[in-house]
UniProtKB/TrEMBL annotation:
SUPFAM superfamilies, per the entry: Putative DNA-binding domain
Domain of life where this protein originates: Bacteria
PROSITE patterns associated with the record: HTH_MERR_2
GO molecular function: DNA binding
Signal peptide positions on this chain: none
GO biological process terms held by the UniProt record: regulation of DNA-templated transcription
Gene3D superfamilies, sorted: 1.10.1660.10
Domain HTH merR-type: 10-60
InterPro entries from the UniProt entry: DNA-bd_dom_put_sf (IPR009061), MerR-type_HTH_dom (IPR000551)
Protein name, UniProt field: MerR family transcriptional regulator
Length: 105
C-alpha cells in the first residue's frame, strides 16, 4: 500500500466523484446550489477541484445524506459554520492584540 502523501493539486469531476462516492452529475448539481462549492476552470473550461473543494463536497454529502437536511438546510448549515469559523478567527486575532497590548504596558 502506498503511504506517500498526495501531491496532486487538482482533480477532475470524475476523480472527485470516485473519491467521495457519488455521481459526477451530483457534483455539477451541487455546484449550482452551494456557493461554497466553486471549482476552478481550466483553459478548456473543465472543472478542477482542490482538496478544499473535496472537503466541501464531503460536508454537503454529510449534511444531505447522514443529517437528512434539504439542500436549503444544508446550504444554511454550511454558511453558519463558515460564519462561526470566521468569528472564531477574528476573536483570536483580538485576543492576540490584547495580549500584546497588555505585555507592552
Amino acid at each position: 500500500m502506498d503511504t506517500k502523501p498526495n501531491t496532486k493539486l487538482y482533480y477532475d469531476t470524475n476523480e472527485v466523484a470516485e473519491i467521495v462516492g457519488c455521481e459526477a452529475s451530483a457534483l455539477r448539481f451541487w455546484e449550482t446550489k452551494f456557493p461554497q462549492l466553486n471549482p476552478k476552470r481550466d483553459a478548456r473550461n473543465r472543472r478542477r477541484y482542490t482538496e478544499s473543494d473535496i472537503e466541501i463536497v464531503k460536508k454537503i454529502m454529510h449534511q444531505t445524506g447522514k443529517q437528512g437536511r434539504t439542500i436549503k438546510g444544508a446550504r444554511e448549515q454550511l454558511r453558519r459554520k463558515e460564519d462561526a469559523q470566521l468569528m472564531i478567527y477574528k476573536l483570536s486575532r483580538v485576543r492576540q492584540f490584547l495580549a500584546e497590548l497588555r505585555d507592552n504596558l
